[in-house]
Structure formats: C-alpha cells, structure tokens
Design brief:
- This protein is about 75% helix and about 0% strand.
- The chain is built from four helices and no strands.
- The longest helix is centred in the N-terminal third of the chain and has 22 residues.
Length: about 90
C-alpha cells in the first residue's frame, strides 16, 4: 500500500517522464522553450507568460493551475537562464 506522499511523488515522476518523452521525440522543443523564456524573462509575471507561450507554441502543455511537475520544469528553466546570465 502506498502512502499519499508516495502517490504524489509517483504522479510527479510520471508527469516528468511524459515531458521528457515529448522533448526527446521533438528535438526543437527544448530550444524553443528556452527562446520563449529568454523573450519573457524580464516581464512582470514572467513565469506565467513563459508557461502560456510554451503551451501555445510547443507540444508541451502547462495548465493554468500548475502541477508540481510543471513548477519543477519552470524552476529548471529559471536555473538555466540564471546560469546563462552568470556566463556573461
């Protein structure tokens, strides 16, 4: 029997696996997601803008009510943007 925490973690893992599958099946998705993030990074509510644009322009769907997996994905995008900034 699984605990609620284990069930939640499994759901997150399953969502992330689905996302990774999409990225690997469509090689332009990752690059497009980062382009969108760069375009919107300085805007007010940048995270929401990025999520909306990614959903509109790629095969990745991020609903308005972000799941924990969606939040992790957006966190990773922010991390990559911060690392890019540190290089310059």
């Amino acid at each position: 029997m699984t605990t609620p925490t284990e069930s939640r973690q499994q759901k997150i893992i399953d969502e992330l696996r689905g996302f990774i599958r999409k990225v690997l099946s469509e090689p332009t998705v990752a690059a497009r997601c980062m382009e969108i993030a760069r375009e919107h990074r300085q805007e007010r509510d940048a995270r929401e803008q990025i999520a909306r644009e990614i959903s509109a322009q790629t095969i990745v769907r991020i609903p308005e009510a972000h799941s924990e997996a969606d939040e992790i994905f957006l966190d990773v995008i922010e991390d990559v943007l911060e690392e890019e900034q540190a290089l310059y």
